[in-house]
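Hypothesis: this fold can be encoded by more than one sequence.
Test: take the structure tokens below, design a sequence, compare later.
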């Protein structure tokens, strides 16, 4: 299956329809004669008099089989009706996440949306995802149910504002059930400053308000059906991945010992040394997940401290230009290493099973994102007069990227490659390549919609300026993704392209809605984010994302599919989050855990998709 050649530049195959995913909630639920689904999306928006108005927008979601290979997303209709950039970005994310969760082959999916008027904002994403899922699966939507919430890459539902206004709008339109995200059960009335308990408000209006942490819960409320069967058994990392995990944990602790033992006196902080000791202690007691998680955190901290000290000393002794050259040389070295790691990973996976071929691009997220960070720093180093503090700060970013490329990325790749890759009903290589190409297609387009939103709406407010490197790295990923060919290429190329697309999509989704969960602008890249607030929503977000991966992995493993790598990555991420809660490292632990779970979710969704399209395993 070979598609027409061409690069995935923005606008290619992405037909923008503004108001479909971010602020609205559709009001009329039903099934069209053309197989479409109309979803009631709740919306709320400020008025000219300063008040907040709410309502329901009926959003029509239509999914068809495409005439030629390649996921397509039509947003023309919503654009024509005046939907805004946030709405378009949310629509694209909903189409991508809905397709991932459906188990459909993206090469056979053509998604289009329609709305009836101007709309913008992020809070319709979850409802649109429900519409996509129902249309793909052919399930009917119950009347009387509506919802509000953003959607994240793992299918979790993110928080929104003005929930009370939306519940009132639902009651006025005769809805009986309103689904809301975790963490929005109580809000403050902007007019009176008084606390509003949303479930109590709903009861007073004759509306049942339910909390929906994820798309699975919401889909049951809308349709009565589950999106995945689940096996009922806890998933396992498996013998092959367990062997890799043991070696990776041992190697990490050995490296930590060497780094700390050879560093100059006073460079490595007491807290970093303490976490390194705790990692070693956990390893000796056999708690691999905790040992690896604490080791990752300690090695990142030690690397930052050493790099900062080296650049500061160079600046003092030889001047700013010498410090810049030091960083540029290190970036060049790491970029070369990243290419070697990537090339070796995809070459080895090309001769393995479909599980390894789909999971290696996920594991390469450590490398693809870090390479994008290096690109952002290299461009930043051309600025004049960065000063000592500026160069020291950039040294921390480069150190973070270095640890990912040299240690954490290779560890993840080994875990993704673990397993026999020779189970029953293995798809043909051509099927896997076409499947990867299709997923790359729609993940790139989802990322491009997020990028377009940020360029028009967020960048004007200053997001992306140093020291925050997330947005510049996202832009670097976008430049790379925009050059990916649309056709089906050799397996090594498809895996490399999918790796870039996955990071582009995940980071874009984080930028659009993740900060409302994390409360951590900058994500601690190159620095300790001890001053950032730890959102109250973080625990539910981390545990919810982990549970999603475990649920799907359990189902896959019950059918003989090797899914040990996603289980391991979420296991150690969660262990680190729990261990660091209540300490000054809590935000860093949360970021690591959530990013591991979101990447792992893409992995299990792809495994589910290809096994479903292949008739099951």
């Amino acid at each position: 299956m070979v598609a027409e050649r061409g690069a995935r530049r923005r606008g290619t195959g992405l037909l923008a329809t503004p108001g479909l995913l971010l602020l609205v909630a559709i009001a009329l639920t039903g099934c069209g004669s053309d197989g479409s689904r109309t979803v009631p999306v709740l919306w709320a928006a400020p008025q000219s008099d300063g008040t907040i108005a709410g309502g329901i927008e009926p959003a029509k979601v239509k999914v068809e089989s495409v005439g030629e290979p390649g996921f397509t997303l039509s947003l023309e209709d919503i654009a024509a009706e005046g939907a805004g950039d946030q709405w378009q970005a949310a629509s694209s994310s909903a189409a991508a996440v809905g397709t991932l969760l459906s188990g459909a082959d993206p090469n056979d999916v053509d998604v289009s949306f329609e709305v009836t008027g101007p709309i913008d904002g992020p809070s319709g994403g979850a409802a649109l995802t429900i519409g996509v899922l129902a249309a793909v699966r052919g399930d009917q939507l119950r009347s009387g149910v509506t919802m509000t919430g953003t959607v994240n890459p793992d299918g979790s539902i993110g928080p929104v504002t003005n929930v009370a206004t939306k519940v009132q709008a639902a009651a006025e339109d005769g809805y009986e059930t309103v689904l809301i995200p975790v963490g929005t059960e109580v809000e403050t009335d902007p007019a009176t400053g008084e606390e509003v308990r949303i479930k109590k408000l709903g009861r007073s209006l004759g509306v049942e308000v339910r909390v929906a942490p994820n798309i699975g819960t919401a889909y049951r409320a809308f349709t009565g059906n589950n999106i995945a069967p689940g096996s009922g058994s806890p998933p396992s990392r498996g013998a092959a991945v367990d062997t890799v995990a043991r070696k990776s944990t041992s190697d990490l602790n050995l490296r930590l010992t060497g780094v700390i033992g050879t560093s100059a006196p006073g460079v490595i902080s007491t807290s970093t040394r303490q976490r390194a000791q705790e990692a070693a202690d956990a390893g000796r007691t056999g708690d691999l997940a905790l040992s690896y998680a604490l080791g990752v955190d300690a090695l990142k901290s030690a690397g930052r401290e050493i790099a900062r000290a080296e650049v500061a000393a160079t600046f003092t002794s030889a001047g700013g230009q010498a410090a810049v050259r030091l960083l540029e040389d290190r970036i060049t070295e790491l970029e070369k290493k990243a290419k070697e790691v990537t090339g070796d990973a995809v070459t080895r996976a090309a001769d393995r099973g479909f599980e390894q071929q789909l999971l290696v691009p996920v594991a390469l997220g450590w490398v693809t994102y870090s390479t994008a960070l290096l690109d952002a720093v290299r461009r930043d180093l051309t600025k004049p007069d960065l000063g000592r503090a500026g160069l020291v700060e950039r040294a921390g970013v480069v150190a973070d990227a270095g640890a990912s490329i040299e240690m954490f990325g290779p560890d993840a790749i080994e875990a993704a490659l673990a397993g026999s890759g020779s189970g029953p009903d293995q798809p043909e290589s051509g099927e896997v390549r076409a499947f990867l190409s299709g997923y790359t297609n729609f993940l790139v387009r989802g990322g491009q919609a997020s990028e377009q939103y940020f360029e028009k709406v967020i960048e004007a407010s200053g997001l992306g300026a140093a020291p925050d490197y997330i947005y510049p790295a996202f832009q670097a990923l976008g430049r790379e993704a925009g050059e990916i060919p649309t056709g089906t290429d050799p397996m090594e190329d498809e895996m490399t392209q999918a790796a870039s697309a996955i990071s582009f999509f995940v980071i874009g989704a984080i930028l659009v809605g993740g900060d409302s969960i994390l409360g951590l602008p900058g994500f601690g890249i190159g620095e300790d984010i001890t001053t950032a607030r730890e959102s109250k929503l973080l625990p539910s977000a981390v545990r919810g994302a982990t549970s999603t991966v475990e649920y799907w992995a359990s189902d896959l493993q019950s059918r003989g599919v090797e899914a040990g790598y996603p289980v391991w990555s979420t296991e150690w991420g969660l262990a680190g989050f729990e261990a660091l809660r209540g300490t000054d490292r809590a935000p860093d632990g949360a970021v690591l855990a959530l990013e591991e779970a979101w990447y792992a979710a893409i992995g299990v969704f792809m495994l589910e998709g290809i096994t479903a399209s292949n008739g099951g395993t």
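Residues 52 and 531 are 33 Å apart (CA to CA). The mean pLDDT is 82.
Hypothesis status: open.
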